Amino acid sequence: MPQELIAKYPSEERSGSNLLVLDKNTGNIDKRKFHQITDYFSKGDLLLLNDTKVFPSRFFGKKETGAKIEIMVIDNLGSERDWTALSRPYKRLKEGAVINFSENFNCEIIEKLGEGKVWVRFNEAREFFAQAEDYGHVPLPPYLKRADEESDKERYQTVYALNKGAVAAPTAGLHFTLDTLKALKEKGVNSAYITLHTGYGTFAPMEVEDIRDFKIHSEYFKISSSTVDLIRETKKAGGKVFSVGTTTTRTVEYVFKNKCKVLEGKCDLYIYPGYKFEVVDRLLTNFHLPKTSLILLVSAFAGHDNTMNAYKWAIENRFRFYSYGDSMLII
Prior knowledge:
Elements (H helix, E strand, L loop, with lengths): L17 E5 L6 E5 L12 E5 L1 E3 L3 E6 L4 E9 L5 E7 L9 E3 L5 E9 L2 E6 L5 H8 L16 H4 L7 E4 L11 H9 L3 E7 L22 E4 L2 H12 L4 E4 H13 L6 E4 L14 E5 L6 H10 L1 H13 L10 E4 L1
Parallel strand pairs: 1-17, 3-12, 3-14, 4-11, 14-16
Antiparallel strand pairs: 1-2, 5-6, 5-8, 6-7, 7-10, 8-9, 9-10, 12-13, 13-15, 16-17
């Protein structure tokens, strides 16, 4: 993976990014611009999107000794104030330590959980998300190797983001503009939303020899019964279900694997080659890091050889990779 192909910044225009279209039956590859994605939809198809909203979840503070500490919250523990977080540095941090982010905003280290993780409890001066907006930073992926900038507040977020709670963007959706969504609607394509709060585990490398030994992360999800009904109606009428991203795909497949009995909770569905898809007919996804569960999901959908050929083709054709990079539609 040539390092210069990792997109450190988004394309100038959301829908101006490149789109690789892979036909999984023939292995054929086409190069288009993202706004041309509307050509692949027909009247009666369904577009499924993840409406999670990224919040500023990275905080830079100081201990009472003056030592600098970075806290990156990654998972909610049931109360708005209590979170699992990654801390840097970790070793010298002690339980009971207070980290100050401002005069009125701080957190206490309740427990050290190992592997760089801590249980933190934020103070009650104001509602947590309001304080996060004031003092937090956009949680850009670590491989971007840069500090967040003002423009990231808008661009590391989909135009339809609604439900706050993600610490990583559902990046396949970053390419959509309101104009593209409008064009699909005018074509007779239905849209529906699920919520899955993308967690930091999405970046977790697979440090196993056998992929079956990997333990997938779990993430909070919610889907409405009306969305479930719309999926069923689309399939019954012969329409195609287009899933935007691995997060949306995991969620709807998880719900239907469980006979639609669980519409809210934690999704821990691990999809790897050999998996039989029940819902998704078309998959839109960005280009992922090697040795992650995300590339396995893509391989399960498109086939291993097709996926590897598409990535090789994308590298040869200088596509941009990862969160702020180009996208791929698998048909």
